[in-house]
Amino acid sequence: MIKSVDWLHAHLNDENIIILDASLKAKKERVCQIPNARYFDLPGKFSDISSQFPNTMPSASQFEKEARALGINNDSTIIIYDNMGVYSAPRVWYMFKSMGHQDVHVLDGGLPAWEDRQFTTEDLSNEKYESGDFTAKFNEDSIKSTFDILQNIDSRKSQLIDARSEGRFNGTAPEPRAELKSGSIPGSVNIPFSRVLENGKYKSKSELEQIFNPEKPMIFTCGSGLTACILLLAAEIAHDHPKSVYDGSWTEWALTHNLVTNS
Q1: 32 in catalytic set
Q2: Does residue 64 lie within any of the structural domains?
Q3: pTM reported for the whole predicted model
Q4: Residue 78: closest CA among 93, 99, 91
Q5: Total structural domains in the chain?
Q6: Is residue 261 part of a domain?
Q7: pLDDT digit string (tens) for 140-196?
Q8: PROSITE patterns in the record, alphabetically (predicted)?
Q9: H helix runs in the chain, sequence order
Q10: Helix (H), strand (E) at residue 21
Q11: Do 71 and 84 share a domain, yes or no?
């Protein structure tokens, strides 16, 4: 699930290793990359750009096409990092897992941890790759819709966990998108994603076990389905329990429903 920068440095030239740079330009401009990294364009090529909501999961056919264009094969060992430490990489990990690929890992600490160890970086690359044979096998249980969330408000069969900040969750701080009210989905609980991280890396398994104590399947949500995956991966490290993501998250909920406060 996660790999250290020391592990990657030792395996950098392994035959089946594919390193994906999932950095978001909107958060921090990319200026260099880990050697041999391939840029994973999350907002452009690996999101459903026809959706009115950001970061929407693409179709299996779109994901397969773009993954093949990056030279990814069914037997590839995929290592994903971003230049924030741990931010967008877990979303990409979740996407590959949802598309049926098991040998996929997040680089703990990302590019900052790599640079802290003074490992070599290189200039950004726009290389073209030989087409891979990656086959997407989408797991529908990995993703939840607004309909699923509405059903869960009544049934409470799953625990909905929100990764946004406490202020946004409680409605005391504004949303980054001016058109959205802040608040939270009825029945949800708040675990800000920063709680599972320390110095840009995931906390230890024992610490994460103390944060997550699941009695039900867990559904993770956030502003747009991205930082929810930071929590999902943390929970995966801690517990073997059913997990999924509300893909539209608060953006979809706040734009389409009047239920904007927790209860």
Answers
A1: no
A2: yes
A3: 0.95
A4: 93
A5: 2
A6: no
A7: 999 999 999 999 999 999 999 999 999 999 999 999 988 889 999 999 999 999 999
A8: RHODANESE_3 (PS50206)
A9: 5-10, 60-69, 89-98, 110-116, 146-155, 166-170, 205-211, 228-238, 249-256
A10: strand 17-21
A11: yes
